[in-house]
Amino acid sequence: MTTSMGDVIIKARSEMKRLTGLEAASTVKTVKDESGWRLLVEMIEKRSIPDSMDILATYEILMDDNGNLMEFNRKGMRKRVDTAVSEG
Question: Sign of the C-alpha dihedral, residues 37, 7, 19, 77?
Fold first, then answer.
């Protein structure tokens, strides 16, 4: 079964919310390789006021060709206001 990039992104963000309880902020990267789908997704680790001070964590996610979550790892954290993003 071929899974589209859009479907993989939606499923990855949904699975990460279910497993971690965190909300997705953005999808930074999605690529298909021989291992499956590799994504970098920023999740909101801690909400703050103002929201520019939210703490975002970048997670590297591996999903198989059918869009099943195989692995995830937190690669780094930053304040939303910080523009430098770690590409883990």
Answer: positive
In angstroms, the CA 54 to CA 32 distance is 30
Which residue range forms the structural domain that includes residue 66? 5-79
What tens digit of pLDDT does each residue of 61-83 get? 999 988 899 999 999 999 988 87
CATH number at residue 22: 3.10.450
Rg of the chain in Å (alpha carbons): 13
- Structure pTM? 0.86
Assign 3-class secondary structure to 21-78. CCEEEEEEEEEEECCEEEEEEEEEEECCCCHHHCEEEEEEEEECCCCCEEEEEEEEEE
